[in-house]
Amino acid sequence: MYILETEQSFDAAHFLKGYEGKCSNLHGHRWRVIARIASDNLLTDPQTRDMVMDFSDFKGILKNLTDALDHKLIIETGSLKPATLKALRDEGFAIVDFPFRPSAERLSEYFFKELKAASCPVISVSVYETPTNQASYQEG
């Protein structure tokens, strides 16, 4: 099996609604995302012959996904009072709503599914919340 790996990073803030501890407070991270794709077979068309996928295409897809979250506040839908959310948006803050708690675990699953939807033969995605703490997602 051939395996390719690429990495992108983004800066974003989040908080964990309902969590008892420091992470319930608004804070930011330099998120690091490592995606892996794999195939038993290499492509045969003239442009990408003997490749799993063109690295620039793979890197570009992941970069587009991470750029969409860069310098944003990532929240779980319904985790802020409507008046608070409106006030933040009225002040011009860029906010991304997810239907899940924005933990490293759930973000790794999000990136995995987005890469798969973009026709990448993804096998796993790891999301680092800090330089030493990471969560990974792969289909089981």
- The side-by-side strand order for the widest beta sheet comes to 4-3-1-2-5-6
Known CATH architecture:
2-Layer Sandwich
Main β-sheet description? 6 strands, mixed
The tally of structural domains comes to 1
Superfamily (CATH H level) name: 6-pyruvoyl tetrahydropterin synthase/QueD
**How many angstroms separate the termini?**
18 Å
Structural class: alpha/beta
* Average pLDDT figure: 97
**What would the CATH topology be?**
Tetrahydropterin Synthase, Chain A
CA radius of gyration: 17 Å
Uncertain stretches: none
Helical amount: 25-40%
> Roughly what fraction of the amino acids lie in strands?
35-45%
Shape: elongated
| CATH top level assignment | Alpha Beta
The arrangement of helices and strands along the chain is EEHEHEHEE
How many alpha or pi helices? Answer: 3
User: How many strand segments?
Assistant: 6
Description:
Helices cover 26% and strands 35% of the residues. It contains 3 helices and 6 strands, in the order ββαβαβαββ. The protein has one domain (2-137): 2-Layer Sandwich (Tetrahydropterin Synthase, Chain A). Strand 3, helix 2 and strand 4 (95-98) form a beta-alpha-beta unit. It has a 6-stranded mixed beta sheet. It is elongated and about 55 Å long. The mean pLDDT is 97. The protein has helices at residues 55-67, 82-90, 104-117; strands spanning 2-14, 27-39, 72-76, 95-98, 122-130, 133-137. It has 140 residues and is α/β, with parallel strands linked by helices.
Keywords:
single chain; alpha/beta; 140 residues; Tetrahydropterin Synthase, Chain A
